[in-house]
Predict the structure.
Amino acid sequence: MRNISYDNITETVVRAYSGAEDARTKEIVTLLIQRLHDFVREVELTPREWEAAIGVLTRAAAITDEERNEFILLSDLLGVSALVDLVDGHHDEGASMTTLMGPFYVPGTPELPNGADLTGDNDGERIVVYGQIRKTDDTPLGGAKIEVWQNAPNGLYTVQDPGQAEHNLRATLRADENGNYVFATAKPIPYQVPEDSAGGELIRAGSRHCWRPAHIHLMITAQGCKRHISQIFDLNDPYIDEDAVFGVRSDLAVPYDQQPSEDELSRFHGIQQPFNITHVDFVLAGD
Ligand code: BEZ
Ligand code: FE
C-alpha cells in the first residue's frame, strides 16, 4: 500500500475491508466506500469543505444524548429516514403506507380503553379519530395495539416540556374484536424541528424552513404483522406539501375539520361534543 494514488485509492480501501466475515456487512461497506469516493471525486471536495462537514458532525455529536439524537435529525432532514422507510415498505403490496417514527416516541405509555378521550385540559378543538385495522387479506386485526402520541397546543411534545403531565396526549389503546379503534384528542398543530444545532445549520444552508405539518403519531402492533409506524396529517395544514422531514404520504393526509355525520354522532355519543371527525383505516403487511 505504498503507491496509493488518485486512481487506485478506492479499490485499495475496498480491498482493505474485503475480509469482513458477515456478507451483508461486506456488501454495505464496499458500496459505501465506492459511493463516498465517487462523491468526493465528482464534487472535487476541498480540504476546507471536508473540515466544515466534520465540524457539522462534531456539533451534532456534542448535542446528542439519551434524549436528543442530532444524527437522526440530520438523517430526517436529508430524506434518508424517509427513504429507509419507503424501501422497507416497497414490497408490502396492499398495505397502507408507513412513515417516520420521529424522536418523541416513549414505550410503555399506559393503556386506556378504546374510545378514550385524551383531550384532558388541553386547549384547542377536539377531534375524534377512528377507523379499522386489518391485514392485507382484509382480516380485521382485533386486539391490535395502537400507541398514539402528538404535540400539545403549545407545539411541544410532553417529553420536551416539563410543564406537561408525563402522559399528556399519549395513550396505548386496543382495537375491538372487529379491528375498530376510536379516540378523541386535541387537534395537534404544526411543529418546528429543532434548529439550534447541526440540523439547523443544514436547514439554513439549504434556505429551507423547519416546519412539520400537524400530525398524530401511531405505532400499531398486531400478531403476524409487521410493526406499522404511521402519522395522520391534517390535509389542510399550510405545510402539508413542504414537510421539513419528508414524512407526508397522500393516503395519510386527511381533513381534520369534517363535521360528524348523524351516524358518527350516534356511534360516538359517549365522547364530549363538539368534535370534528378524522377517519383513517390502516392495512398492515404480514411479517
Ligand atoms: C416528529 O414527528 O415529531 C419529528 C420527526 C422528525 C424530526 C423531528 C420531529
Ligand atoms: Fe411529530
User: Anything to note?
Assistant: The chain has a mean pLDDT of 96. The first strand starts at residue 126 and ends at 135. The longest helix spans residues 23-43. Residues 73, 76, 100, 102-104, 193, 212, 245 surround benzoic acid (ligand 1) (CB under 6 Å).
